[in-house]
Each structure stands twice: as C-alpha cells, then as structure tokens.
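Cross-check.
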Amino acid sequence: MWLVRHAAPLTPAGITVGAGDPPLSEAGVAQARRIAASLAERPLTKVWSSDLRRAVDTAAMIAAGHGLTVERTAALRELDFGAWEGRDLRDMWLEDPLAARAWEADITDAPRSFGESVRDLETRVSDFWDGVVLSGEAVVVAHRGSLAALQAAITGQRFAECFRDSAAWVEAQVTDRRPGRSASR
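Predicted model, tokenized:
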C-alpha cells in the first residue's frame, strides 16, 4: 500500500485548503508526474483517491501508467476547516488565541470553528479502511490529515504521531493476519 499526498494545489502558501477544490498548480503537475514515474514500475492493482480535484488529478497520473481507473471517495477528503477554509491560519492566533494554543498543543483538539473534528476525520477514514480488501499493491492519494488518519488506522499509531511524521509518500507493508488487510509503515 502506497500512501501518497496529492501534489501542490493552486493555492498560496499558508492558506487552508480542506474541503476546497483548487486544481493543481504547474509545480503540482510536475510533482504528480514525478510521483507517477516513481511508481511506474510497481505492479499496482488499484488506485483510490479523495474525490477532491488535487488528489484525483495526482491519482489519475499514477493510474494512467497502469491502465487503472481511479476509485474516488469523499471518505478520504481533508479535514473540513469550516470557518477557516481559504483563510490564513496564522490569523487564528490573533482572532482565537485559546483555540489556536490548544490546537498547537494537541493536533487532535481542532477548534470548534472547524467544520469537523479530527475524531470525525479519523472515523470516516477508518470506515474506508475497514472496507478495503487488498489484492496486490495499491495506492491511496489523499491529503495530509486524511493520510495521517489512514496511517493511524493501518498501523495502530496515534494520529498525532502520523501527522507529525508525514511524508510526501509512505510505503506500508501488509502485516495483519487477516488476508488482504492491514499494514504497517
């Protein structure tokens, strides 16, 4: 199982993009091509993606080289930032410093002004994982938060650990005793 963060969207740095749906930037298209090239020789059998354009477009480049169709799902969407969607999160420290400090101290303590909690994110991603049956190598293209939740569901690690240690892509090796199931980093 390959966990791949979508390539760079057409959004200024520092602006939150959770439920928003911007396309890939030119740099993002180049990144997606590099990711696809790095997975070109893998014997992929399935590609899942968040249904948001930046993830779907990244996944499509990976899937194309394998003759696969991208299976899209809203379960892999990024955390919904609610009132903070499309805004610079640095402003939170000015407008709601208590919530900002609490979130900084514990990434799972999302501000109430967000559209969903980290627990909600973990639940929907875990539900996705519960329905997965692996039959060979697969790729999931999603977002930093949803990939951290997926890695936590797969490995049993805490969300905060997975979020803190996130990478552009992670190989997860199947280890669970149930056929076609779990994996570890």
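Residues 70 and 133 are 16 Å apart (CA to CA). The longest helix spans residues 26-38. Passed to J.P. for a second look.
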